[in-house]
Design a protein that fits this description.
By secondary structure, the chain is mainly β. It has seven domains: 28-38 and 49-102, no CATH class; 117-174; 180-589, Peptidase S8/S53 domain (Rossmann fold, 3-Layer(aba) Sandwich); 593-679, Sandwich (Immunoglobulin-like), CATH 2.60.40.1930; 684-759, Immunoglobulin-like (Sandwich), CATH 2.60.40.10; 769-856, Sandwich (Immunoglobulin-like); 863-935, Immunoglobulin-like (Sandwich), CATH 2.60.40. 13% of the residues lie in helices and 38% in strands. The chain starts with a helix and ends with a strand. Belongs to the peptidase S8 family. Pfam families: Peptidase_S8. One of its GO terms (biological process) is proteolysis.
Length: 936
């Protein structure tokens, strides 16, 4: 064995060296040089430009240090493409490599990866941004082109790639992509983002003047919650999905189906746009034709950290249209690392799609029921260090719902503005109000996970109502100052500046074009700068600090505990191209405040369930939460020593039908909620659904003295009737809808929780009968089971069997009050048996069930039918096996031989003359059946 030892040592040494050589070949620096500098991808020679240089540093370098050399592309934290060669200076000492670059910096990482896996003989489809026209070369096949954004889809041979991407007409090339929706489960919650209290405080604001588009597959246009408000688009997807239906419901559901069907803006119009056609913005004609001012995008592609054609196109559309806004979900891959750019490898910068790198739209992250960031949610920063997402909203099961929530709240703001001014709301004003009114802890700045805070519908509408906003424009070096009067007892002043910025060039290393500056002089005379974040890869979790912002088109200043007096807002230009319009909003948060937000005066909690309680307070310390069912005469404890600053508490609602109040008791004061209602939910059932009438009934609710019945109108449920009974007969002659709901009414006159809406035609009940089932027993008897929807006015059940010509009465069973009845028929014959029931009422009417059938086998368990036969002889055998069927005439002459394998088979008889024949069936050579039949 010892003479093998030197050979083994040599073998392991060689393997170790090979492993190290392979590892060296895969080092990031070498792969970057192969992709962008040293090696072409598809050809032996690649065109290079002395004006484009690949530089790779030994350690992380801030992109800002390379702007003087014409920064073209950020490949990662150490590798860049620059326009000019870096001369000998302090920076070159950190260089690991510098050399001429090819033109692959004009393409996305995912496209380059695809090219590297392709052969020269392959063709590839790419999406390109062009200056005006495509190169006039014969190898390009144009698939489609959008002149409004100078974007084309083309097909070309891989071997022509280097020439194609080097052409000066090509600005950027990318891989086509398909969008995927970003939601796991339905988890809408109107309380977290204060939609419920906004609807209570602003009852006339419901979205009625606004049209919203949902871009993805189609939502269910037959859903009762959208009735009468669908804006039909012939280009909508034909694929109806529950995801799209849920998004539309969160935005603008009318609540007709039940409480969970109530959206933020229940009167808004709804249109569907197809994301399978294009991920670019829809045409201006679409938005104009259907009067759409908001579009929801709850989908994503993959992590794409660059300013691509989609981002530039949306920025351009929003900048030019002024009153159109787009809302995007951040994504649901918050735990995945960034795959390219300066943040490569970090669990940051994982927004799903380059469109979400745009400046002028809103990207929304997700929170849990307490308003805390969830790890599922994708987050920023943007590729160039900008703050993303801008806002967050409830999205515990996915950021799709978070985006839809912000879209719904935006609809309310647009509706309020339009009702007040009769004009469309500027999108920049909409966004600055949403951003400024969003909630986060006093004295804290934005971050790369939740943006500028959790959207707050009530505060946003209150900002509009109080007119705490303004606008202006900046040209050249001029600046604007605005004075604010600060009253006593203010805990925080918050001021936000926002502007829709010019679109940057596709593949730009920095998206911001016009850079404005916000500063606020406090009542103390001090100058306060905006909150900024450090975009360096090693500083993304560092809290915000104050400083000059040169990245974002959002700037926000807060001042804690300002004294009474005059504060002054200053707005000026740091860098400007042309004239820039801007909007600002401000908020004054008073000290020593407490307000219940759930429950509110309209709240109805379902009894015996878990609910979320919400309040808003500037108090600190702990206290006790209690509830009362007797108008405050006595109180029962929910929790003790609970922090008032949390603003959130889960509560298991008692099983009662009562008015109630909640109280948060601090050591020196207490805060009582408005009276609200606790109510069980009644359940509607259909008793019968006959030709001329129907009968519905529901469970009796203790302490309910009346019941309100609702019937579906054109867009909403309408009062139909009130009754003290727990049932209702409905004549169909005057009925416009088969959808009904019921709510209980107390002796004091207040109304409890409305039931789910039920369509009596889809409850599986015909005229009294839910089902009649016929089952064969082991001894070939038939067991009949009758399930009734109701026994109201029924006298008896008559069990009937068909004898081939008429129906025989088998037995009469009196109605006892049960909904289930049984009968066993022992007198059966081989073949197909038919059964039904006749239901007799006390007033002499008769109703019949549908027919139930059962197959009986008695002779060898094989049946041949019909007998006589005209065209096809059926053979039924409960055992699946291969059999030979032989048909002979009465003289014994074989007229037909057929092999069958199925349990049920048909043999054509049309070629046989009329007469009597014999059917014999064989299995494995053994005769298992023999019977005569007549051919007509």
């Amino acid at each position: 064995m010892n003479h093998y030892l030197p050979k083994l040592i040599l073998l392991f040494t060689l393997l170790f060296c090979c492993r190290n050589i392979s590892a060296q070949q895969l080092l990031p620096a070498d792969s970057v040089r192969y992709r962008y500098g040293l090696q072409p991808i598809a050809e032996t020679q690649t065109k290079t430009s002395a004006e484009n240089w690949l530089v790779i540093f030994k350690k992380t370098v801030s992109p800002q240090r390379l702007e003087a050399y014409g920064l073209r592309k950020i490949i990662n934290a150490k590798a860049f493409i620059v326009h000019q060669q870096i001369p000998e200076n302090e920076l070159t000492k950190q260089l690991a490599y510098q050399g001429p670059a090819n033109f692959n910096w004009k393409a996305s990482e995912v496209l380059l990866q695809q090219l590297e896996k392709s052969a020269d003989t392959d063709s590839i489809t790419v999406r390109v941004s062009i200056k005006q026209d495509l190169p006039a070369v014969p190898y390009i096949t144009v698939i489609s082109i959008r002149r409004d954004y100078n974007i084309a889809m083309v097909k070309l041979p891989v071997k022509q790639w280097s020439s194609f991407i080097a052409d000066t007409l090509i600005v950027f090339a990318d891989k086509p992509r398909k969008a995927l929706t970003e939601m796991i489960l339905n988890g809408a919650n109107p309380y977290i983002n204060r939609i419920n209290i906004a609807q209570e405080k602003f009852p006339g604001i419901d979205g009625k003047s606004i049209a919203v588009s949902v871009k993805e597959d189609k939502f269910d246009t037959t859903d009762l919650d959208f009735a009468g408000r669908i804006i039909y688009n012939p280009d909508a997807s034909t694929n109806v999905t529950s995801h799209a239906t849920t998004m539309a419901t969160i935005i603008a559901g009318a609540g007709n189906t039940g409480a969970l069907g109530l959206g933020a803006a229940p009167a808004a119009g709804l249109s569907s746009s197809n994301f399978n056609i294009t991920l670019l913005p829809d045409t201006a004609t679409y938005y104009r034709k259907y009067n759409i001012s908001l579009q929801n995008h709850s989908y994503g592609t993959e992590i794409e950290n660059f300013y691509g054609p989609d981002a530039a196109a949306y920025d351009k559309q929003i900048y030019e249209s002024d009153t159109l806004e787009h809302v995007f979900s951040a994504g649901n891959i918050g735990g995945q690392p960034s795959n390219s750019g300066i943040y490569q490898g970090l669990i940051y910068a994982n927004l799903t799609g380059n469109v979400k790198q745009a400046k002028n739209l809103l990207v929304v992250g997700g929170t849990d029921a307490a308003g805390n960031f969830i790890s599922l949610s994708s987050h920023g920063p943007a590729y160039d260090g900008r703050i993303k997402p801008e806002l967050s909203a409830f999205g515990q099961d996915g950021t799709s719902g978070a985006a839809a929530t912000v879209t719904g709240i935006s609809t309310l703001l647009q509706d309020y503005w339009k009702q007040q001014t009769f004009t469309p709301m500027p999108s920049a004003l909409l966004k600055v109000i949403l951003l400024n009114s969003a909630g986060r802890a006093t004295g804290t700045g934005p971050n790369y996970k939740s943006g500028y805070g959790s959207v707050n519908a009530l505060h946003a509408l209150q900002t509009l109502k109080d007119k705490h906003f303004g606008n202006g424009s900046t040209t050249g070096n001029n600046s604007t100052s605005i004075d604010l009067n600060i009253p006593d007892n203010i805990q925080e002043l918050k001021v936000t500046l926002y502007w829709n910025d010019l679109p940057a060039s596709v593949n730009a290393t920095k998206a911001l074009v016009n850079d404005l500056d916000l500063r606020v002089t406090g009542t103390d005379g001090n100058l306060y700068l905006p909150w900024i974040l450090n975009p360096a890869p090693d500083s993304l979790a560092v809290p915000a600090k104050r400083g000059r912002d040169t990245l974002n088109n959002i700037e926000q200043v807060t001042i804690t505990n300002p004294a009474a007096g005059t504060a002054r807002i200053h707005i000026s230009a740091g860098q400007l191209r042309g004239t820039q319009t801007w909007y600002y909003a401000y908020e004054l948060v008073p000290k020593s405040t407490f307000a219940w937000h759930n429950p509110d005066a309209q709240t109805i909690f379902e009894a015996n369930t878990n609910v979320d309680l919400y309040w808003e307070s500037t108090y600190t310390g702990n206290g006790n939460v209690q509830y009362s069912l007797d108008s405050g005469a006595t109180w029962q404890t929910v929790v003790t020593n609970y922090p008032v600053s949390s603003g959130y508490l889960g509560w298991y609602v008692p099983a009662t039908f009562s008015k109630a109040m909640l109280r948060f008791q601090l050591p020196d004061t207490s805060f009582t909620s408005p009276p609200f209602i606790i109510s069980p939910k009644v359940t509607i059932q259909t008793g019968f659904n006959c030709a001329d009438s129907t009968f519905i009934f529901w469970d009796n609710l203790p302490n309910a003295v009346q019941y309100n019945i609702y019937n579906m109108g054109k867009t909403r449920l309408q009062p139909y009737q009130q009754t003290a009974d727990t049932f209702l007969f409905i004549a169909k002659a005057q009925l416009s809808s088969s959808n009904f709901a019921v709510s209980p009414v107390s002796a004091a006159g207040w109304e409890g929780l409305r039931s789910y809406t039920v369509d009596f035609t889809t409850q599986g009940v015909d005229c009294y009968v839910k089902s009649l089932i016929a089952d064969k027993t082991t001894d070939n008897a038939v067991q009949l089971t009758l399930n009734l929807g109701s026994t109201y006015q029924l006298k008896e059940v008559v069990w009937q069997r068909y004898n081939g010509k008429s129906w025989d009465n088998l037995q009469t069973t009196p109605i006892t009050g049960s909904l289930l009845y049984y009968y066993t028929d022992p007198n059966t014959w081989e073949g197909l048996m038919y059964y039904r029931v006749q239901l007799n009422t006390f007033d002499g009417r008769a109703f019949y069930s549908g027919i139930s059938t059962v197959q009986i086998f008695k002779t060898d368990n094989i049946m041949v039918f019909p007998n006589p036969v005209v065209n096809t002889l059926g053979i039924m055998d409960p055992v699946v096996r291969e059999r030979q069927v032989v048909i002979t005439d009465m003289s014994g002459r074989e007229r037909m031989r057929v092999t069958i394998t199925d349990s049920l088979a048909g043999i054509g008889m049309s070629q046989l003359p009329a007469g009597v024949y014999n059917c014999t069936i064989y299995y494995n050579g053994q005769r298992i059946y023999n019977r005569k039949f007549v051919k007509l």
